[in-house]
Amino acid sequence: MYDLIIVGAGPAGLTAAIYARRANKSVLVLEAKTYGGQIINTLDIENYPVERHISGFDFADKLYNQAKDMGAIIKFEKVVEVKNGRLKKTIITSKNKYEAKAIILATGSENRKLGLSKEEDLIGKGISYCATCDGAFYKDRVVAVVGGGNTALEDALYLTDIAKKVYLIHRRDSFRGDEQTLNLLKKKNNITFIYNSNITKLISDDKLKGIEITNKDNKKEVLDIDGLFVAIGRLPENENFRKIIKLDEAGYIIAKEDCHTNKKGIFCAGDIRVKNVRQLVTATSDGAIAATEAVKYLNNLKDWNYVK
């Protein structure tokens, strides 16, 4: 029986572990993949206080070791079910079953995919979801970015300094991303904007060779490209919690800034909850808040009947 189980070892989850251990609570962190979350794919973090420049991997590594040094137990097991019992919380993983008095959900989010045939097979063979991670592989080559938000605009801007040519494809007639970034893009001479179009087919042999795009008039066109960067949003990894926690239409946990869910003793932190800003600094902030609230909850437990 742990005081607190944290699901997810990204910045939010690991920060929560540090704060809970500082309060002398027993902590188990469960992670399905690898520690650090999506931040490990960032080459250079420039907007985190104190550290002017640090790679995502180094940041995650420091955070992971800090949580371990504080005494948090970290296990790499995929959580498949959470049970909110009257007397205890039960977490079932692909390997074991664990019990705790409180839970923090911090599983983060994953890249939204196009849903096209061969997409999974071509990841790393012409398809990427991270321009800063893989852009250097496409120096002086032709690439495309699909999406209409800030991530797509930033990816395209980054790639214009690397690739020979960049196509930016959006399904609507205007971008919803930052106007300043869009204006910078329009000054580049190696970018082509394609509006009102969707990617409808991936062309490949052992790697990506091109894409078929279809516009609103159902006119099709084939673009010969070497790389495709998908930036069409993210999906919160909350499906395993849907039965017990209230989610919004997009699948994000409904929670305010105190990180409380609709169930006593179950908290959330990071990208999986409803929020306006999803950045590294807000993820660590959520982790600190969720852990602080969880500690308050644990300290207020008079007996097991309090847990509902």
* Integer average pLDDT: 92
Total number of helical segments? Answer: 6
One letter per element, helices H and strands E, the order comes to EHEHEEEEEEHEHEHEEEEEEEH
Unreliable stretches, pLDDT < 50, 5 or more residues? Answer: 304-308
Beta-strand portion reads 25-35%
Distance between the termini: 17 Å
What integer value in Å does the Rg equal? 22 Å
**What characteristic shape results from the CA principal axes?**
elongated
- CATH class category of the largest domain: Alpha Beta
Q: Class by helix and strand content?
A: alpha/beta
User: Which fold does the CATH topology of the largest domain refer to?
Assistant: FAD/NAD(P)-binding domain
Helical content class: 10-25%
CATH architecture of the largest domain: 3-Layer(bba) Sandwich
Major sheet = 7 strands, mixed
Explain briefly what this protein structure is:
Helix content is 22%, strand content 27%. It is of the alpha/beta class. The model is unreliable at 304-308 (pLDDT under 50).
Describe the structure.
- The chain is an alpha/beta fold.
- It has two domains: 183 residues, FAD/NAD(P)-binding domain (3-Layer(bba) Sandwich); 104 residues, 3-Layer(bba) Sandwich (FAD/NAD(P)-binding domain).
- The chain has six helices and 17 strands.
- The strands form four sheets. Strands 1, 2, 3, 4, 5, 6 and 17 form a seven-stranded mixed beta sheet that branches. Strands 8-15-9-10-11 form a five-stranded parallel beta sheet, with helices on one face. It has a three-stranded antiparallel beta sheet with strand order 12-13-14, with no helix packed on it.
- A hairpin with a 4-residue loop joins β4 and β5.
- α1 packs parallel to α2, α1 runs parallel beside α6 and α4 packs parallel to α5.
- The longest helix has 20 residues.
